[in-house]
Amino acid sequence: MPRFRDLKTALALSDSRRRITSFREYAEHVHEYAVSEDPATAAFERTFFSDQDFSADEALLGDVSDAVFALESSLSPVLAKMEATGVWVSKDELVDIAEELRAKSKNLELEMLDLVGEPFNPNSAKQVQYVLFEKLGIPSGKKIKTGFSVDSETLEEIGKTYAIAHLILEYRTYEKLRSTYAE
């Protein structure tokens, strides 16, 4: 049975502030997931959600792992054909989606302008650092080579108290969707 790698899992299991001692605690804490009471299903869940080696559970997995392998095997040729052939996409629909995302980004820019009092580029780490930590005086988080971090993790933490960080994250999300997929 292949192991599934999950960044959330690795972070949770290596989180020194919270010692997770069981799979049930891990699943409920990280994934807000209720672990099955059925031993075979619970073994499959442990294997699926974690990058740890749960080889002791492999005897319990039995038919479950065979069913998953069969499902994945039957989907592989379909996915390969889609990759080779491509899929139909409506250019007009993509243009509409791009415009909608652009409009949402523009509205967020206006909201940020109201909060900050001056325009800035939310995609520029330097400008975001200036706005958050110098102009608004928000207590800074972790220090990096170029100043204080303005990565998503830091912005999520700041966003719990300051709306501007949440707006920057939302703006970045819409812009990433627009530039990567719609355009």
What report would you give on this structure?
There is one protein chain. With 183 residues, the chain is mainly alpha-helical. The protein has 2 domains: 7-85, no CATH class; 91-182, Up-down Bundle (Taq DNA Polymerase, Chain T, domain 4), CATH 1.20.1060.10. It contains 9 helices and 2 strands; from the N terminus they run αααααααββαα. It has helices at 7-14, 23-30, 39-49, 58-61, 63-85, 91-116, 125-135, 152-159, 163-182; strands at residues 143-144, 147-148. Strands 1-2 form a two-stranded antiparallel sheet. α8 packs antiparallel against α9 (163-182). The longest helix has 26 residues, at 91-116. It is flat, with a radius of gyration of 22 Å.
Instruction: Indicate the structural class.
Output: mainly alpha
Enter the CATH topology name of the largest domain: Taq DNA Polymerase, Chain T, domain 4
- CATH top-level class of the largest domain: Mainly Alpha
Specify Rg, calculated over alpha carbons: 22 Å
Uncertain regions spanning at least 5 consecutive residues = 1-16
Label the overall shape.
flat
**Mind telling me the CATH superfamily name of the largest domain?**
Taq DNA Polymerase, Chain T, domain 4
The end-to-end distance, rounded to whole angstroms, is 38 Å
Produce a short descriptive summary.
This protein has 183 residues and is mostly helical. It folds into two domains: 7-85, no CATH class; 91-182, Taq DNA Polymerase, Chain T, domain 4 (Up-down Bundle).
Task: Give structural attributes.
183 residues; Taq DNA Polymerase, Chain T, domain 4; mainly alpha
